[in-house]
Design brief:
Layout (H helix, E strand, L loop, with lengths): L5 E3 L5 E3 L3 E2 L26 E5 L8 E2 L22 E3 L1 E9 L4 H8 L3 E6 L10 E3 L5 E7 L2 E8 L6 E7 L2 E2 L5 E3 L7 E6 L3 E8 L9 E7 L11 E5 L3 E7 L2 E8 L10 H7 L4 E5 L4 E7 L3
Parallel strand pairs: 2-4, 7-15, 16-22
Antiparallel strand pairs: 1-6, 2-5, 3-4, 7-10, 8-9, 8-11, 11-14, 12-13, 12-15, 16-19, 17-18, 17-20, 20-21
Length: 294
């Protein structure tokens, strides 16, 4: 096993330099003690650039320290830093296209990538990604333990993730939790039968609202799933959303000069009754006329 196989977790930006250079991406767990008091365990983000010499070798590590509020810690001596590296997790899988085989499926599949997006601020900032082959197979490497959401890049505009399982665990709606070992193969089905929402945003007098921000929010049980949200602009009062996964949603619209915190439960609770309920079915085209929130 070489350093390219390792993953770690933590809160420093670190560079390790030596004579023979190769890359290692990862993060690590850091515990440190100030000269006067013990600092809290620091959980953050790191990208390691490692250059190794033939052992034995010596390296210099430089980094930045943040507190639990992610503010820089300055003027404090940092001692007893420990770095724990662990082998990265490798996940193999396969994607199938609903009702498509042969060349028709291959043309779609070879455009795709499969990523795992970290759902915690204490996890690594990049999303481990695997390129999909023309037969639908892919491998995601160097993944660390943690909670992830599945993302597929390159999906055609009218496609959506119909299902995704790791073993018997459904991961589109529930997400994926990884521990120290591979959870087994990932099986994904994408469908070209997504729904579509089109409409107009108007003011209290019924006139189109130029530049309105239109937000589609999933039903309450799925509001932890960021990938099910949509945000588009309505430049001349009209908007269109494609590739919508079938399900129940609410649609909201705010003026262009506002910044709605629509993923904040407390914020959206104030406007819950002002959203337009939308039911999206397979291959449906839903027309909505919604009033802007002021």
């Amino acid at each position: 096993m070489n350093a390219n196989d390792f993953w770690g977790t933590g809160s420093w930006d670190v560079a390790v330099f030596g004579r023979n250079f190769f890359w290692l991406l990862g993060v690590f767990i850091v515990g440190c003690r100030g000269s006067q008091e013990r600092l809290p365990m620091l959980i953050g983000i790191a990208i390691l650039l490692v250059g190794l010499q033939n052992p034995p070798s010596a390296h210099t590590i430089s980094g930045r320290v943040s507190d639990v509020d992610r503010k820089p810690v300055v003027g404090v001596a940092v001692q007893d830093v420990s770095i724990i590296l662990m082998p990265g997790i490798e996940i193999a899988g396969r994607i199938a296209v609903e009702n498509a085989t042969g060349e028709a499926a291959s043309n779609v599949l070879r455009q795709l990538t499969v990523s795992l997006r970290p759902e915690s601020d204490s996890q690594v900032v990049f999303s481990p990604t695997g390129v999909v082959n023309s037969d639908g197979s892919f491998t995601i490497r160097k993944v660390g333990p943690g909670d992830y959401a599945l993302e597929i890049g390159g999906l055609p505009s009218d496609c959506y993730i119909k299902s995704a399982f790791v073993g018997r665990e459904e991961i589109v709606e529930r997400g994926l939790t990884l521990y120290a070992q591979s959870p087994g193969p990932m099986d994904i089905v994408i469908s070209p039968r997504a729904g579509r929402i089109e409409g107009t945003i108007v003011d209290i007098e019924g006139a189109p609202v130029l530049g309105a921000q239109v937000v589609l929010i999933p039903e309450p049980r799925l509001r932890e799933r960021e990938g099910l949200y949509r945000l588009v602009q309505a430049p001349n009062g009209s908007f269109s959303m494609r590739g919508i996964r079938p399900g129940s949603y609410k649609l909201f619209a705010w003026p262009a000069d506002e910044t709605p915190a629509y993923r904040d439960p407390d914020f959206i609770r104030e406007y819950e009754n002002r959203g337009e309920g939308v039911q999206v079915d397979v291959e449906s085209r839903v027309i909505v006329r919604a009033r802007v929130i002021r």
